[in-house]
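User: Hi! I'm working on a homework problem where we have to compare a predicted structure to a textbook description. Could you give me the structure for the chain below?
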Amino acid sequence: MTVYFFHLRDDRDVLIDDEGRDLIDAAAIAREALKEARALISAEVLEGRLDLSQRLEIEDAGRTLVHRLVFADAIEIVRPR
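Assistant: Happy to help. Predicted structure tokens:
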């Protein structure tokens, strides 16, 4: 397994993940990013706010970007008809 760091970014700030997570492959990274993004989105909605421009940027131990997930891509928005 390899350690990957899940940094949370928006247009102004970044929250650096210093601990990282052990994951096995690219599919596991994508699943974990989607799970994490949806958890963060849920927490924001409970606060009455949703910023879909936020994103997770996942880096490996060498600080190379290996995956990016924009929050807007983590959910489907169903609008009233």
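For your comparison, note the following. Residues 2-73 form one domain. The chain has a mean pLDDT of 96. Good luck with the assignment!
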